[in-house]
Structure formats: C-alpha cells, structure tokens
Amino acid sequence: MTRLRRLTRLAAVSASALALGLTAAAAADPIKIGSVLAVTGPASFLGDPEEKTLQMYVDQINEAGGVDGRQIELIVYDSGGDPNKARTFATRLIEDDEVSAIIGDSTTGATMAMVPLAQDYEVPMISLAGAVVIIDPVKEYVFKTPHTDRMACEKIFQDMKANGYTKIGMISGTGGFGKSMREQCLDVVGTYDIEVVADETYGPSDADMTPQLTKIKNTDGVQAVINPGFGQGPAIVTRNYRQLGIDVPLYQSHGVASKSFIELAGDAANGVRLPAAALLVADKLPDDDPQKEVVVNYKTTYEEATGEPVSTFGGHAYDALMMLVAAIEKAGSDDPAAIRDALEQTSGFIGTAGEVNMSADDHLGLDVSAFEMLEIQDGDWVIIGEN
C-alpha cells in the first residue's frame, strides 16, 4: 500500500469515527463514480454511446432510489482518446473529486495511461478498451468489460480453420488497439496451423491503404485477410479492398462492431466477417439464450432514448456500471478496497458481452465462447456461427 493511500485510509478511519455523531442525512451522501471517456475526437464512436449509456442508467438507478438508498454522482471527463488528458482527468477524479471507482477509458492507449494511477491510489478502475494488456498480467485494481483482442484473434482463426484457410494476409493499424491485436494474432496463429504470408500496417492518419493491400493481393497463396484496427482505418481498408477486386474473405475485429462502420464502408462492408458481442444481433438470438433478455432490454432502452442504433461500445459501459453497482451493494460500502474485492468476486453476471465470472487470476471473466461470429449482409449483421 502506498504512503498516500495509507494516509487516505487513516483519514477515512478518523472520518468514520466522527460520522458516528452525524445525522442520517449526512450518512446518505452520494456515491461518487468517475469516468474518463473519448466522448469527442477520432474515437468518439466509442465514447459517445458509452457516456450516453452511463448517464441514462445512472439516472434510472437514482430515480429508483439509488444504491442502498444513496444516490450515484457520476462525474465524466472527456479525454478525446488522448492518453495525457486521460491521465490528468484520472488524477483529478481521484485527488479532487474523491471518487470510489472509475469507468474508462474508451481506448487502450488512454486506459494504459490511467492504470498506474488506479494501482498507486488503490481505486478500482473498469476499462472499456479492448487490448488484453489491460488485464494480462493481472493488475490488482484494474478490470475491463470488452472481449480482448487476443480472443478476437482466436475466434477469427477458428472460423478460418473451419473454412480450410492456411495462408493469410494481415493489415493492421499502428494505434494502441491495432498494434496490440496484431501482436496477439501473430502469437496465437500457429496454434491453428495458419501462416501469415503478408503482414502490412497503416498509420492512424492514412487515407489510402491501396499500396499495402496491393502487396497483399500480389502475395502468392493468400486465402483470407484479417484487419486488426478500429476507427476509420478499417472502413478505408474495406473500401480499398473492394476497389482492388481482392476476392478472398476479409475479416475485421470487434473494434468495428457498430453501424458507423457499415455507414463508413458502404456496400463494401457486405461480406466482411467479424467476432462481436450478442448485442448486435439481440433480436436474432434464440429465446432460450441467457443473454437475450439483457441485450434486448438494453438495445430497446438505448435506441428509444437516443434515436441512434445500438453499438457494442455502449454495452461495455452498461456492463461496467451494472457490475460496479452490484459490487457496491455486495460490499455494503463505497470504500474503494471493498468495491475492488467485490468486483473480483463477480460470478454469473449476464451482461451484453456474455456471462462474466471473474477471479483473482481473471479480471475480465469472459472466454472466446462469449463472441458471436457475424457477417455483414445487405448492410446488417447476420449470425453465421461455426462452420
């Protein structure tokens, strides 16, 4: 435990002693939850639905009486996906706002800038970003809700192997998520007897990936292509892919699991395959699927409130908030250490991402089976399952 945290705990003990003489009204002070999200900027397609989701459900919880009779005070800062801003805002949440827990950031790079603060100050943080490095190795005070990039690689390679593909091309973004997923894919691809025979990258500001895709097209033996990345990059890749007439299957990551990708890529998106949460196909799930009620309710609530199509990214925020509220109720306290312990004991939680079972060795609690394998057909998501 850090010296700063020990002093904070001592102060909390003193405050608790003084609280014995306070009125019941003072005992009902709000529970402060902080959030740092990429509400604006290039990753706003992540942060915007996440913020809307948090605000919407915090309002619902408060209207229903709060958590154990206490209202939630949600404090949100917009990082724009910038790691430096994320670190600054996380510091403010902890030192000035004195929050009990943090949800965010939306992106891997910004999340990793916040991780040392959560660890040093011992404040639980639930990330909404995708890279496995966030929770592997396990960090005592850091959790996350989205499926990892490593799991996405595994789900994609399962589908490729089932289709008999043994030689593939890869074109990856060089941002935090794309770089991490590329590394994870290269690490596990051999397990599926698949060889990467072409390996290209593109930068976050690149507007034309034709040169890289031409190299892949001209590589002998390529039977399919995978594109680790998120944001506008994968949409550009997809459009360029069709323009070049590449006739082998294109796989994207769960980082494009929103209607905005289909809108950006247009008709070129048709035929793209990707792993994604069941939320995208909520109404297509069988009635006996344990997730159906949760994802249908969230989808309906979000779309009616915002007038916008649901995305898996808002679902990550829903899962984080609901697990956090359950942890506060289980702990019977808003003490950060007690919340952390309760979060780690999350078991059988059905969220938009799947069934979550955390432990001291697993601060995600999902496995690859939580993914659905989807294909975009006629501008919509279709479950294709296992081949």
UniProtKB/TrEMBL annotation:
It comes from the Bacteria. Residues 30-364 form the Leucine-binding protein domain. The keyword Signal applies. It holds the Pfam family Peripla_BP_6. Residues 1-27 form the signal peptide. The keyword Signal applies. GO terms for biological process: amino acid transport. Keywords: Amino-acid transport, Signal, Transport. Belongs to the leucine-binding protein family. This is Branched-chain amino acid transport system substrate-binding protein.
